[in-house]
Amino acid sequence: MFQKLDHILIQTNKKFYSKLFGDHRSVFSGSGFEFKEIREYGSGDDIRHINWKVTAKNKIATVNSFDDTKQLNIALIYLNSGGMSFGTSKKKIDVANEILASLGYIALKSSDMVTTVIYDDNDPIYYKATKNKNQLKINFQTISNIDPVGLSVTFSSLNNYIANKIKKNSLIFLIGDFLEDEIDLGFLSYRYELYTIVVRDKDEECLSMNGRYNFIDSKSLDESIVEVDETTIKKYKTLVETHDKNLIEHFKKNRIRYKKIYTNSNVVDDLASLLVTR
After folding, report:
1. Same domain, 38 and 112
2. 130-144: per-residue pLDDT in tens?
3. What kind and span of H or E run contains 161?
4. Are 168 and 129 contained in the same domain?
5. What pairing do the DSSP bridges indicate for beta strands 257-262 and 193-200?
C-alpha cells in the first residue's frame, strides 16, 4: 500500500507543482489566512469575504483580502458509507483514497496541517492534525483496509461531529458518493471553507443491465428481487438525475465548491480543475 501511495504522491507532485502552480506557496484558498487589506470587489472573489460595513459606507463593493503566508488547517473527511464498496474499473473507496492521498500531499508541500477523519455513524475515526507524511500514509492505509458495507452516514450527525472536532476557519474536504437522501451542509458552509468531492461510478448513474436480479442494499443489507427492464432503467436514471440536480443546487446556494470524480477518471487532473481558481 505504501508503494502505491508513493506513486500517487509522485504523480501529484508532477501535476500540481511542476506544471500548474509555479511559485505559489499554497494551492488552497482558505478563510484561515491572515487579514491583509480591504480592496474593491473583483471577479472571482468569495462573497463571504465582502466587507458589508465599508461597502454600505462607500457605495462600492469591497472585500477583505488575506495574506497566504499563514499555515492553514486542512481537514480531509472521508464519508464511509456502504455505497463506497461499489465500482467497476475501481471501487469508489479506492478512488477516494487516491483523492485523500493527493490532497494530503499537496497540503504537506504547502506546510499546512492535515487532520484526517474516517466518518460513519457507527464508529468515526479521528486522526489529529499532522505535517508528517508517514503518519498520513498510515491514516490512508487504514482507509484501504476498511470494508464500508453495512455502514451509513447521516449528515445531521456528521455536522455535529465536525463542529465539535474541527476548529473554526479550517478548510474542509468532504469525500464520498453523496447518495444519501437528506444532505444539508448549510451550517458547515458558513463555519468553514468547504469543498465537496463526489465519487461515483458511471454504471451506478445509468444502469446497463436487463433481467431479474437480487439486489442487496449496501447500507442496510436488505435484499430484494428486482426485474430490470427499460422502464425500470428510465425511472432509476430520473431518480439519480433529480437527486444530483438538487445536490448541486444545494452546493451552489451555500457557495460550496464541488467536483464529481468517476472511478475511471484521472484523479489528479480532476483535482486540478477543482483547485485551480487563480
Report:
1. no
2. 988 888 888 888 888
3. helix 155-165
4. yes
5. parallel
